[in-house]
C-alpha cells in the first residue's frame, strides 16, 4: 500500500522518535475498497505535546481530545493520540478521554468495524473486529454491542444510514434493531450535526438507503419532530446530482419547507434557493418571455436552469426545453428584467419632476414591467414619456 509522501513522513517522524503511528478510519476503509482517500488521519501513541514537538507547523484543532493538525504547505493532516473514551452522559460526547498506548484500545471505541482498521507500512493491518471481512461483504456492523455504540453517540444511527447510502453497504440486523429501539435519543443531537449527515446521505451514490430513515423510525427525529409527507420511493429513484435539487426533491411535499430548513440550520442561501424550487415545482411556467423574466428577477440564471432540471425530473415535458431556450435568448440579448438594467433610475425621475418616496418606487416598478413586456421601450427618452 503506497502512502502519500507527507503521510509517510509523519509516520516515519513519529516512529523515529520512539512512538507508534498508523493511518486509521475512513482512509484505510477507502484504500481496501480501491478508492483514493480524500483525507488521511493518523493515530499515534505520542501525546499531543510530543507530537507537536516533532513538526514545525501544527495547529491545536482538538487538543482536548488529543488531535493536532500537521501542516505541509497547503495540505493538512490530523494526528490524534490513541485514546479511550470516558462515559457518555448526553448521547453526544464522552465526558472525558484517556490517552492510551495501545492501538487496539483506540480502535475499540470506534463506531463501525469498517472504520476500526489501522495500517502501518511496516506492521501491516491491525483489524481486531474483522472490518476487512465486513468491507468484502458490503456490510455495516457496530464495534461491539450496537445499543452501547448508539447509546454513546446517537448520531451514529444516522451515520450508519449515511454509510449505507455512500458505500452501498447493508446495515446488519442487530444494528437496525438498535436504531429502532434508540431512535428517540436523536432529540439530543444538534440540528447542525443532523443536517451534515442528511446532506451526505442524500448525495450518496446509493440514495435508496434513505428509505431506512422511514423503516427505522429515524425520519421523524431527522425532520425535527415532523412526519415525512412525501413519496420517498419516487424521490429516491429521481435524485439528481446537485445538492439543491436533491434537497428540493426530498422536501417537495413540505409546505413549511423553509421552516424545516431553518430548523436544520441550513445557511440562508440554501434556504432561499431550495424553498424557491419547492414553491415553483408544482407550478406550470408559461412559455412567455415576460413570465420567464419574472422568475429570473428573483433567482440567478443558473438557479432557473436547476429549477428546469428539477421540473424535468419531477414531470418530464417538452416545454422545459423550450423554456430553457427562451431564457437563453433573453440572456443572450441582454433583455432587461431587473431595476438595475432599466435605462433610467430614481435620479432621472426626480429630475423630471416625479416625487420621491413610495410613489417613485412604484413608478420604477411599473416601468420595469412595461420593459419586461416590450424590451424596445428601454430607452431613457421613451421611459420618461410613459
Count helical runs: 21
Residues in helices, as a percent range: 40-55%
Q: What's the end-to-end separation, in Å?
A: 75 Å
State which percent range the strand residues make up.
5-15%
Mean pLDDT reading: 93
**Would you identify the regions where 5 or more consecutive residues have pLDDT less than 50?**
none
Shape: elongated
Assign the structural class, choosing from mainly alpha, mainly beta, alpha/beta, alpha+beta, or little secondary structure.
Answer: alpha+beta
Profile the largest sheet. Answer: 7 strands, mixed
The main sheet orders its strands as: 3-4-5-2-1-8-9
Radius of gyration from CA coordinates: 28 Å
- Total DSSP E strands: 11
How does this model look, in words?
- The chain is α+β, with helices and mostly antiparallel strands and 386 residues long.
- It has 21 helices and 11 strands.
- It has helices at residues 5-16, 26-32, 48-52, 103-107, 131-136, 146-152, 155-167, 173-182, 191-202, 211-215, 219-222, 232-236, 243-250, 257-263, 268-280, 289-298, 301-314, 319-332, 346-351, 358-373, 380-385; strands at 21-24, 41-44, 58-62, 67-72, 75-81, 83-85, 97-99, 118-120, 124-126, 139-140, 170-171.
- Helix 6 (146-152) crosses helix 8, helix 13 crosses helix 17 and helix 14 (257-263) runs antiparallel to helix 15.
- The longest helix is centred in the C-terminal third of the chain and has 16 residues, at 358-373.
- It is elongated, with a radius of gyration of 28 Å.
Amino acid at each position: 500500500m503506497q502512502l502519500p509522501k507527507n503521510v509517510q513522513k509523519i509516520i516515519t517522524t513519529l516512529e523515529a522518535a520512539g512512538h507508534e503511528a498508523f493511518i486509521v478510519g475512513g482512509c484505510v476503509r477507502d484504500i481496501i475498497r480501491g478508492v483514493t482517500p480524500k483525507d488521511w488521519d493518523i493515530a499515534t501513541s505520542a501525546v499531543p505535546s510530543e507530537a507537536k514537538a516533532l513538526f514545525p507547523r501544527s495547529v491545536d484543532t482538538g487538543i482536548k481530545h488529543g488531535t493536532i493538525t500537521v501542516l505541509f504547505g497547503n495540505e493538512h493532516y490530523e494526528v490524534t493520540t490513541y485514546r479511550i473514551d470516558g462515559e457518555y452522559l448526553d448521547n453526544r460526547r464522552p465526558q472525558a478521554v484517556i490517552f492510551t498506548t495501545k492501538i487496539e484500545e483506540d480502535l475499540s471505541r470506534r463506531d463501525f468495524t469498517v472504520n476500526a482498521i489501522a495500517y502501518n507500512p511496516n506492521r501491516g493491518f491491525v483489524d481486531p473486529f474483522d472490518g476487512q471481512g465486513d468491507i468484502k461483504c458490503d456490510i455495516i456492523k457496530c464495534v461491539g454491542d450496537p445499543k452501547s455504540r448508539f447509546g454513546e453517540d446517537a448520531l451514529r444511527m444516522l451515520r450508519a444510514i449515511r454509510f449505507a447510502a455512500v458505500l452501498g453497504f447493508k446495515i446488519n440486523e442487530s444494528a437496525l434493531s438498535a436504531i429502532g429501539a434508540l431512535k428517540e435519543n436523536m432529540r439530543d443531537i444538534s440540528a447542525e450535526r443532523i443536517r451534515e449527515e442528511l446532506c451526505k446521505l442524500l448525495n450518496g451514490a446509493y440514495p435508496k438507503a434513505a428509505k431506512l430513515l422511514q423503516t427505522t423510525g429515524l425520519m421523524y427525529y431527522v425532520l425535527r419532530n415532523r412526519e415525512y409527507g412525501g413519496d420517498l420511493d419516487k424521490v429516491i429513484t429521481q435524485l439528481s446530482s446537485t445538492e439543491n435539487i436533491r434537497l428540493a426533491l426530498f422536501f417537495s411535499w413540505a409546505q413549511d419547507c423553509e421552516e424545516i430548513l431553518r430548523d436544520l440550520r441550513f445557511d440562508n442561501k440554501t434556504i432561499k434557493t431550495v424553498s424557491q424550487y419547492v414553491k415553483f415545482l408544482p407550478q406550470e411556467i408559461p412559455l412567455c418571455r415576460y413570465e420567464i423574466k419574472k422568475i429570473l428577477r428573483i433567482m440567478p440564471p443558473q438557479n432557473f436552469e436547476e429549477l428546469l432540471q428539477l421540473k424535468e425530473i419531477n414531470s418530464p415535458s417538452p416545454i422545459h426545453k423550450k423554456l430553457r431556450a427562451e431564457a437563453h435568448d433573453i440572456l443572450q440579448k441582454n433583455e432587461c428584467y431587473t431595476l438595475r438594467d432599466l435605462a433610467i433610475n430614481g435620479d432621472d425621475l426626480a429630475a423630471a419632476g416625479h416625487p420621491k418616496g413610495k410613489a417613485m418606487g412604484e413608478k420604477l416598478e411599473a416601468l420595469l414591467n412595461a420593459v419586461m413586456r416590450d424590451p424596445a421601450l428601454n430607452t431613457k427618452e421613451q421611459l420618461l414619456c410613459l
